Amino acid sequence: MGNDLCFLSATELRARIARKEVSPVEITRAVLAQAERLQPELNCFITLCGDEALAQAKQAERQIMAGEPVGLLHGIPLTVKDLVNTKGVRTTFGAVPYKENVPAADAVAFGRLRAQGAILVGKTTTPEFGTKCLTDSPLFGRTRNAWDAGRSSGGSSGGAAVAVASGIAPLAVATDGGGSTRIPAACNGVVGIKQSNGVIPHSQVEDAFGNQTYVTPTTRTVADTALMMQAMAGGDASDPWSIGVPVPDYIEGAAPRGDLRGRKVLFCLSPPGRPVSADVAAAFKASLDRLAGLGAELEEFSGESFDIEPIWRAINHTVWRTRFGKLAADHRDDLSEAFLKQLALATEVSGADYQRAMFDRTALFRRIQALLARGDLLAMPTLTRTALPIEQDLFGTIEIDGKVFDSVRPHWFPWTMLFNMTGHPAITMPAGFGRDGLPIGLHLVGRFRADAELLRVAALFESASDLLGRWPQGVRG
What we know:
Blueprint: H1 10-18, H2 24-42, E1 45-48, H3 50-65, E2 77-81, H4 108-115, E3 119-124, E4 136-137, E5 141-142, H5 158-165, E6 171-176, H6 182-188, E7 191-194, E8 214-219, H7 222-232, H8 250-253, E9 264-267, H9 278-293, E10 297-300, H10 309-330, H11 337-346, H12 351-374, E11 377-381, E12 398-400, E13 403-405, H13 408-412, H14 416-422, E14 426-433, E15 439-445, H15 451-464
Parallel strand pairs: 2-3, 2-6, 9-10, 9-11
Antiparallel strand pairs: 1-3, 4-5, 6-8, 7-8, 7-14, 11-15, 12-13, 14-15
Helix pairs in contact: 2-3, 5-6, 7-15, 10-11, 10-12, 12-14
């Protein structure tokens, strides 16, 4: 069996564990062997937790053999992005000054997964504090794309997406502050959701009221995303937006039942002036045809005035400047040039500029609400092109079909940041491959806190496509 266990979904592993066909120890050994084999090439972990994971797996096996009640994720391996606190396990935030940091408590969202029996096998890579769409840092170097070592993994949850895409573990905890879950998920051909604001509590965020960052699932299948959400969702006293939000049956709700008749999908390729590669445009058209084939009515919406990166940047860079100003002053030599440059940009944002951006954020929310009163879902490409070169600089140019453009963020992922600010649920899922053999993602957005319905639509799309059987070359050994 061995390596084969690495290519089963968490949903399938859960069923086999329940039937006692496979042991959590076998699964964990297989996953750790896969991690050890691929880590030198992919560089997707900052910390591996082999001994602790095997000890947890043995305990999980004992509980099953003793007939004890078990949790939703009992014996299933998972990775956690190194921004998310894990009790007793080093959590570096991808930054040299925190390389020996060991939290005293779990983040609430991860603690719930642990309580349901998930086994932590390692902490995945992130750029310093998750502040860019590429996964590299002076602490660990670069994380490579699962499909092509010459390409970036995306970011900032690059390690999470690569670990899932390469069969290291079926489930990953990621984070998303402007696309940080969805960008690497699209780059590596996996499923990445940024759930609605408040659905999964965020216990580490410092500005809970103005928050636009999320602790998120990354998986290979929609069913596995639903499984993680079932365990992670529900109110917590630390997060005001999570209090009183009901938890539906995500697992049942995400089944690919029915069709899309009576549902209207509003679509847009990109905001004006934001070019999209021919491969992405073709995959997007094929995705829309697939949605129509499921019964959806399609209607185009205008991308006019959705060039929102300046609003996102005014908010984020101000938050980063406030959080990291002292750190940068004390540890300048340990931090990357890109990180320091972003902090420097924030000095140009006044208090009034920040508040104006927050007003604009509210206007964007109302604008999306108006669109979703007209239609049930929004659709757009996740990225304008496939994964960028491995040596890509955040402040460098970006090439799309041979043409060169300045600034990576608005040209590569013009849509993802928008829904961090508005709080609507947004999912990326595999939608095909470019001529370069790299994955392309479809981005679907649902009504506010209608996450279960978004998952159902995603599951229908997934079942109507034939992409789950494809794995990157070399990961099967």
